[in-house]
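REQUEST ID: PR-0412
SUBMITTED BY: lab tech R.K.
PRIORITY: routine
TASK: structure prediction, single protein chain
INPUT:
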Amino acid sequence: MPIKQALTLDTPVELIVGLGNPGSKYDRTRHNAGADLVLELAKSHHVELKQESKFFGDTAKVSIDDRDVRLLIPSTFMNRSGQSIAALAGFFQIPPAAILIVHDELDLSPGTARFKKGGGHGGHNGLRDTIQRLGNSKEFARLRIGIGHPGNAKQVADYVLKKPSPSDQQLITNSIDDALRALPLAISGQWEKAMHELHTA
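STATUS: complete
OUTPUT:
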């Protein structure tokens, strides 16, 4: 398990994880918004994520403002995301407080993205498994990509596994672009500035 580290507002990011489900049938679905952001981040730094079986996911390393940051997209299904995250974080001794997990967020409308430090899983299966696999630590940071809510809790499971409408997809893409512009501030530990830049975008 990673070494415990107290959550502080100035903790730099060492690992960025994009949550999603594996396989082409889930490409560009709402639940894969986190994975989509990490793919865009890798593309912008001209690196390709490669499968690492010991980490149960696709990984790469990028340099952002002279900081080495590992990228990870678990190849497990969403409800087993923590298996991949704990494997990589444990291997490289990355504490939970230095992890940023990017995920879809039902409680935010398409076009909105928000940073958050710590907190519960909010019913998100990927976060729930991650908290458990990190020894019940909730200290990792989150980047929440709004996908909207279907309006009925019974429709959520089907809703998140479908592609958004073209107009919603454009809004989600715009919010990912906004988040990527604010990301270097978060990576360097300037969380207040990162939050201000993204939340007022």
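NOTES: The helical segments are 33-44, 81-91, 125-133, 156-160, 166-187, 191-199.
REVIEWED BY: pending
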